[in-house]
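chain below, 275 aa
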Amino acid sequence: MATAPSAPNLAIFRRYASKPNPTTLPPSILLSHSETCLTVFDAFPKSIFHLLVIPRIKPPLSVRHLADLRSLLRCEKSIAKGMLMNLNEEANNVKKMIEEEMMKRYKFKWEIWMGFHPISSMEHLHLHVLSADLYSPKMKLKKHYNSFHPSLGFFLHMKDVLSWFDAEPSYYQRMIKLDASQYEPLLKDSDLCCWRCDRALESMPRLKAHLHDEFDKLTKREKAKLERKRKRSDVPASSVQVSVTDDERPEKVARLMPSQDDGSNDPTVGGDLRS
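prediction:
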C-alpha cells in the first residue's frame, strides 16, 4: 500500500539533501556545502546563531537510512560512524564561522553546541549547531526550550553520540534505541529551568528575561576582561578591537544572525506534541 505523501514543510530538508547541486538553493537558505553535507540557516533559530548541517543523500546511504538519527544508527556501525564524522567535521567548520562573527559583533566568543534531537517531526537527519544563549525571539515554547537545554537529556551532544561507538556493545545497543517514551516526557514534564544557573522560572517570558539578563552579565564580564587586557598592555582602546561594519563582512558570515519574525509555529521539534 502506498504511503501518504509528506507534508511539504516537514520534508524540506530531504529535498535539500537530494539536490545534485546545492548551490541552486538561494543564499538565504544555504550557507555552505561539501561532498557529503550542506549547511543551512535554521528558519526558526532558537539562539542568536543557529544553523543545521544536513547529510546529502549518496550511496551507500539512502533516504531511508538518513530519515533520522535512529535510522542512521541502525546501519552498519562503521557506515553510521563515518557519516557522523562527516557531519562533525562540517559542524566544526561552521563553528569557526560563528566564532568569527561573534568576535566581530560582540568582541568575544561564547560556547557553541552541536547536537541532535532524538525525536523530530522533520523527515531528514540534521545536526544543530547553535550558540549557547537560547533567547532568540523565536524561542517561544517550553518544548522548544527543553529540547535544547544542554543537560536535560533531550539534546544529544555530538561528542556523546560519537562516544557510544567506543562503549561496550550492550551499551551501544541500548543507546541507539532512542525510545520515544524515554524522551517525550523531557519536553512536556520537565520544569523550566535556566540552563546556566538551574533557577526555576514559572513562564517562558520570565525565563527569556532571565536568560537575557544572564547574557548581559556575560557581556559585561567579557568587556571588563578586554578592558583589563588593554590597560595591562597600555594600548589605546580604539586599537584593541576594530569595529567592522556589515558592509565589510564576508556576505556568508554576515548572514549568521537570525531574523526577528515570530517562530512559535516551528515544526522541527516534537511536532506531534502539544505545547
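Residues 1-6, 242-251, 258-264, 270-275 have pLDDT under 50 and may be disordered. The two ends are 33 Å apart (CA to CA).
thats it, cya
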